[in-house]
Design goal:
By secondary structure, this protein is of the alpha+beta class. The protein has 3 domains: about 270 residues, Bira Bifunctional Protein, Domain 2 (BirA Bifunctional Protein, domain 2), CATH 3.30.930.10; about 130 residues, Alpha-Beta Complex (YbaK protein), CATH 3.90.960; about 100 residues, Rossmann fold (3-Layer(aba) Sandwich). Helices cover about 25% and strands about 30% of the residues. The structure holds one RNA strand of 77 nucleotides.
Length: about 575
RNA sequence: CGGGACGUAGCGCAGCUUGGCAGCGCGCCUGCUUUGGGAGCAGGAGGUCGCGGGUUCAAAUCCCGCCGUCCCGACCA
């Protein structure tokens, strides 16, 4: 590609709406442009990187035995009603993406489990056709409340999503592992340091699932990592263990004392009421929730910890509160809850010795001196506090640390979640009985990967793409070609021969000063820069330079092409 | 959805407090000179000052409403 013809304009300054390095550089180097908040155009350079990433994905998924297809981006709303997710997505997200057209109401597809299940279900009638894993690379739409950081969090995004169909759970787990491994190879080839972590499944559903995390300061996720045993889990799913108890505190039992605490329902406010002698750790945070089975539950966590709501649990809404008069919003406490049919579950940390300050279940009042087992009881113990750095690994007990990261992919063992609700998911099993698919699904954020790659591979001068993702392999710059026919002739010849040799070359044939060419080459970030100039030509060489390492070599003019094409 | 900030030429910004000819740098066009790390000189084009309303002799500037954009939080398939 001759740069004089390429649709690219590099910017010396980043636009004011770009906050993080990846966003600034992708815009400055002319890869992307914003059309609306969270909606981006891929200019030719950006599209080339996108195609490179897609190529790696296709090669690895194809090699793993997956088949590519393309599902519609527009889904009949009925499909979402059949799966029950139209309601699950709530009152705003899905309706915001519905389109009324002649022929019905459609949804701008946010994800494709429903469509793929009915599609494959219509084609597969026998176990002989299984196992089967299909994938697509497709645009998805999400009613993103807050688009952020350029391509990292958008309302329209490109995703590679695979779906496996198997005869039973064991076979599904084998397929899961196959795609899982393919994803690891994809990230490896793209030069990304990825950690698979245990995660919550959210609205996709299913049992076992993993997020593929790339550690990054701009990440919106955090995962818990154990340097000792390798345990890794999203903070939303991570659990901890308490160290062995060495003995009771010996603290004397205290009396239950009522305190008048009007308007102080937040822990920090109550702590302020008590002053310096009591810390947040002495308060019992009591949250009214509905657990995954729909049971009204009181969740207890020490006041200095954040609670972690397991998947499927939700906070009380106003209707729940009016149905349970024993729970007074803002002044909830555990005392006597079982009598009102409320199950009490507590984080392990609540098992410590000593007294607690608790809500009095009476407006504007708290109780001090509450003791476990004397004043309140716990029906079930677990790890319900959000894990923090220094907590103990649930597997090996060593101290864990938190790692900020970007979620690059998410894989799920769905099992029968979709096949039992979507029509056509049945097939005849080997023994002649009727069975339904055991499924897995695997999403990889393709457009987001551009941001992650740019974030991880850049310096203060610009981007520095890994070879597999680079828009071009070689950036060829001719210096002063306008006043030196020899330079122009040599550069043209090298360009033609490199292209003939199958190498993707960006040829800077523009009539601009050397400084501009060097600066643009650094900004655009092609792995190798070749410079043809009068200086080098006089000594019979062209200059080779690595964008990432800065290494420089001189190649004989006549051997340049053969050396580069050969390697 | 809650909190905050911003909106002036393609990009980055000043001007607004105290109302009075719409500016600067980069980029763009023409010419000449220059040419190994974002060149110099000369000339030029480009604006509904986000939109609507109000106050005023006069509004980029003051007031009201709306829209858009970014940041923090909530949410996140």
């Amino acid at each position: 590609m001759r740069m004089s013809r390429l649709l690219v304009r590099t910017l010396r300054e980043a636009p004011a709406d770009a906050e993080v390095a990846s966003h600034q550089l992708l815009v400055r180097a002319g890869y992307i442009r914003r059309l609306a908040s969270g909606v981006y155009t891929f200019l030719p350079l950006g599209l080339r990187v996108l195609h490179q990433v897609e190529r790696v994905i296709r090669e690895e998924l194809d090699a793993a035995g997956c088949q590519e297809l393309l599902l519609p981006a527009l889904h009949p709303l009925e499909l979402w009603e059949q799966s029950g997710r139209a309601a699950l997505f709530g009152s705003d997200a899905l309706p915001a993406m519905t389109v009324d057209a002649r022929g019905g109401t459609f949804v701008l597809g946010p994800t494709h489990e429903e469509v793929v299940t009915v599609t494959v279900g219509a084609e597969v009638d026998s176990y002989r056709q299984l196992p089967l894993t299909v994938y697509q690379i497709q645009v998805k739409f999400r009613d993103e409340a807050r688009p952020r950081f350029g391509l990292l969090r958008t309302r329209e995004l490109i995703m590679a999503d695979a779906y496996s169909f198997d005869v039973d759970k064991d076979a599904m787990q084998f397929s899961y592992r196959t795609v899982f491994d393919a994803y690891l190879r994809i990230f490896g080839r793209l030069g990304l340091d990825v950690t698979p972590v245990e995660a919550e499944s959210g609205a996709i559903g299913g049992d076992v699932n993993h997020e593929f995390m790339v550690p990054s300061a701009v990440g919106e996720d955090e995962f818990v990592s154990c340097p000792s045993c390798g345990y890794a889990a999203n903070v939303e799913a991570a659990t901890r263990r308490l160290p062995e108890r060495v003995g009771g505190s010996g603290a004397a039992p205290t009396d239950l004392v009522e305190h008048h605490t009007p308007g102080r329902s937040a822990i920090a406010d109550v702590v302020a009421y008590f002053g310096d002698d009591v810390t947040a750790a002495a308060f019992l945070k009591s949250m009214a929730v509905v657990d995954a089975e729909g049971r009204p539950t009181l969740l207890l966590v020490a006041g200095d910890r954040e609670a972690r709501l397991p998947s499927g649990w939700r906070l009380f809404d106003d209707a729940d509160f009016s149905a349970h008069s024993s729970l007074v919003k803002g002044y909830i406490g555990p005392i006597g809850q079982q009598a009102d049919g409320i199950r009490v579950v507590a984080d392990l940390g609540v098992g410590r010795d000593g007294s607690w300050v608790v809500g009095a279940n009476r407006a504007d009042h708290h109780l001090g001196g509450a003791l476990l087992d004397r004043d309140f009881t716990v029906d079930e113990w677990g790890s319900f506090a959000q894990v923090v750095t220094g907590d103990h690994c649930p597997r090996c007990g060593e101290a864990v640390q938190l790692v900020r990261s970007v979620e690059a992919a998410h894989t799920f063992q769905l099992g029968y979640k979709y096949s039992e609700v979507m029509p056509g998911s049945d097939f005849v099993a080997e023994d002649g009985s009727e069975a339904i698919f055991s499924m897995g699904c695997y999403g990889l954020g393709v457009s987001r990967l551009l941001a992650v790659l740019a974030e991880e591979h850049h310096d203060d001068r610009g981007l520095a793409w890994p070879t597999e993702a680079a828009p071009f392999q070689i950036h060829l710059a001719a210096l002063g070609a306008g006043r030196s026919p020899e330079v122009a002739e040599a550069a043209d010849r090298i360009y033609d021969q490199l292209v003939a040799g199958g190498i993707e070359v960006l040829y800077d044939d523009r009539d601009v000063s050397p400084g501009v060419k060097f600066a643009d080459a650094d900004l655009i970030g092609t792995p190798v820069r070749l410079v043809v100039g009068a200086k080098g030509l006089a000594r019979g060489v062209v200059e080779w330079r690595s964008r990432t390492s800065g290494e420089e070599r001189e190649l004989p003019v006549d051997a340049t092409v053969s050396e580069l094409v050969g390697s």
